[in-house]
Amino acid sequence: MIRAQIKGVGHYLPENVVSNAHFEKTLETTSDWIVSRSGIERRHFAAEGETTSNLAAHAARAALADAGLEASDLDALIVATSTADLTFPSAATMVQHQIGMNNGFAFDVQAVCAGFVFALANANALIVSGQAKRVMVIGAETFSRIMDWSDRGTCVLFGDGAGALILEAGEGAGTSGDRGILSTDLNSDGSHRDILYVDGGVSTKTTGYLRMEGKEVFRHAVEKLAATATTAMDKAGVSAEDIDWVVPHQANIRIIKGTAKKMNVPMENVIVTVQDHGNTSAASIPLALSVGKASGKIKAGDLIVTEAIGGGLAWGAVVLRW
Ligand code: UT7
User: How far apart are the first and last CA of the chain?
Assistant: First the structure.
């Protein structure tokens, strides 16, 4: 059977690194509070004029180099983002132009922090159904542009960045030993739309700021993430002992630890980057995959579970063999 196999990965982080101490100057907060409640120590913010598609294009070039491919070798490009440069065209078509990909098709997926998982599932469907052979999936965000800098409950948590993964059609035996995407599980429940949202948008002629009831989101997160990861693992026919790496959405170290515990996976088998990147929404998983590979942790043949939850609520998981 056809499997969507990983051919390359790359990431990009803006130059400007902002430590927790920065927020002590303008808000009633402390670095200790931020570290103890979220695990975040620093985050990157895009420079003036640097857009989501710019970050994504850098990550795309890094992934192409890793795969030894040219942009023209791709036949589809998907960008997961909630912070596209413009209302339209899609960030994906902007990236397509910037990397010199003049063929194929490109589109955005918007599922907030779960966006990369949703985009991966879409890429997998395109490949398995024979509609595309090589698909680049990018998660890219500039959440610094939708922060209310007077809201200490949100603005200390988010960061900017991009990560990219290239998938290619390959043959598999149809077993959990195959390389590539083994299973996907997607969910959303719009009845929770008001605990994490942006209070603006095109139709209201505003940009708006991110609003979050952190405690409420937290309450849903561990339970829903462990459930979707378990469902995806069941679909793939793998169990906790088989997992080499959990690569979770990087929102909060306490959510990451709680979910790993519920999944019966020890923290030694979890890739954690939240301390360095903050919450980069749809970019967090591809960033963690890229950093995990660059650090020598993620190797060919490793069994990986990714899981994410965000505004919507939307949540999901993907099981893949690197
Ligand atoms: O990526 C999308 C998904 N998003 C998430 O997964 C985020 C989920 N939520 C969280 O990560 C956590 O809920 C937070 C990190 C946002 C907050 O942690 P918490 O343990 O849930 O804290 P809390 O909301 O219960 O707030 C505790 C206290 C409050 O004060 P009172 O009401 O108890 O007096 C807050 O006002 O901490 C206060 N607080 C702060 N204090 C210092 C909130 N933000 C800050 C801050 N510095 N930056």
Answer: 17
